[in-house]
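[Discussion] Sanity-checking designs against the backbone

I'm trying to build intuition for which residues belong where. Below is a structure token string of 385 positions. I'd appreciate it if someone posts a full sequence so I can compare it with mine line by line.
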């Protein structure tokens, strides 16, 4: 952010925003939920959940169950009878009133699960994940055990994925090109900007520079790119990082209520030096018009003026509410014509920053672009492993 003399005023504006928006938003999110609430299936904060009556808790858990199941947790309606049976047997052993652990997760199992979660002092939402499995000593392995790490892959896991990918597309775990295809940056860690994700080589033809320079091997896209569906929208993303992204978006939305509209999950782009993490489907950009690039505290003039004019892509945001309860349009209009009055969330402490959703994403294995040295990329989050 800069004023007419070119002075960096970003921190002044940040202080303003912090007072006007963030504090209000954080206070609002901590209000206890009213009784007899209707539930949308969105994740309630721990505080709101603890304040619910038993009846509301069951209603909430049922509304939440589809999301819970889609994220590899287990709740009402789960189709994995074997795992459900293991849960029921363990609940029964702990004294729950389950006559026949037959493998159907219905309301009786839900109520018993919630009671057991409460008794163990963990989040009581009827959604069986790592915490519940550990607390009740349920012997579940495989798919759910993976979710124990919240979708976060270790460097070892990633190296294994990389080797497998490279072997498949190049017939060589080292990822050397062949058959007329070139290899992207290969399976080795990316040290630039301190990033270390490793999802294997991408087979491509053409040049890595720009958006339309490269044609990726469609087999690689088919095998690696999937659609993540979240409360904030659906994003094309690498399947290996999908569950961690879904969890991070979910938690960020519950805590900050930001629009989190994506402007590029999986998208082929890069420079002549190599592809961006977006090309692996391991990078994602959120709410770009309030999170432009900046270098030395100066925001990208193209993005900022575009946002003020309601330019391409920004119209999707106009009617959404920001954390203070105004629509973004009302908020921007209220700031007046001064160019320096653009909202600025990219700096340390902002809702997208290292105390905001950046922190949440970090917990799930992602790094926030606002933490880069040199050019800050406030809209950008990328998987580290
Ligand atoms: Zn990006």
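Best answer:
Here's mine. Compare freely.
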């Amino acid at each position: 952010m800069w004023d007419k003399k070119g002075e960096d005023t970003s921190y002044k504006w940040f202080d303003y925003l912090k007072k006007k928006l963030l504090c209000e938003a954080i206070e609002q999110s901590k209000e206890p939920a009213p009784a007899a609430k209707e539930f949308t299936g969105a994740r309630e904060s721990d505080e709101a959940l603890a304040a619910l009556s038993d009846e509301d808790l069951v209603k909430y858990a049922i509304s939440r169950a589809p999301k819970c199941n889609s994220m590899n947790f287990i709740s009402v309606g789960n189709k994995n009878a074997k795992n459900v049976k293991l849960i029921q047997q363990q609940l029964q052993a702990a004294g729950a009133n389950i006559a026949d652990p037959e493998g159907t997760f219905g309301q009786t199992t839900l109520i018993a699960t919630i009671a057991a979660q409460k008794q163990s002092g963990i989040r009581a939402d009827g959604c069986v994940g790592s915490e519940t499995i550990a607390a009740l000593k349920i012997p579940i392995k495989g798919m759910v055990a993976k979710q124990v790490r919240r979708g976060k892959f270790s460097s070892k896991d990633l190296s294994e994925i990389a080797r497998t990918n490279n072997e498949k597309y190049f017939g060589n775990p080292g990822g050397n090109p062949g058959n007329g295809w070139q290899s992207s940056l290969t399976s080795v860690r990316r040290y630039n900007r301190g990033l270390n994700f490793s999802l294997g080589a991408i087979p491509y033809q053409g040049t890595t520079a720009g958006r339309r320079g490269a044609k990726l091997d469609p087999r690689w896209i088919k095998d690696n790119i999937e659609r993540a569906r979240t409360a904030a929208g659906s994003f094309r993303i690498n399947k290996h990082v999908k569950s961690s992204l879904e969890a991070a978006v979910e938690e960020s939305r519950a805590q900050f209520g930001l629009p989190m509209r994506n402007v590029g999950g999986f998208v082929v782009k890069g420079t002549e030096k190599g592809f961006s993490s977006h090309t692996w489907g391991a990078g994602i950009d959120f709410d770009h018009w309030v999170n432009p690039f900046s270098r030395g505290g100066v925001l990208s003039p193209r993005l900022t003026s575009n946002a003020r004019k309601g330019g391409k892509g920004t119209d999707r945001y106009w009617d959404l509410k920001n954390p203070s309860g105004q629509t973004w349009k009302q908020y921007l209009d209220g700031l007046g014509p001064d160019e320096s009055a653009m909202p600025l969330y990219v700096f340390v402490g902002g809702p997208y920053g290292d105390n905001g959703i950046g922190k949440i994403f970090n917990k799930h294995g992602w790094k926030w672009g606002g933490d880069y040295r040199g050019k800050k990329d406030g809209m950008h989050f990328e998987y580290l492993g």
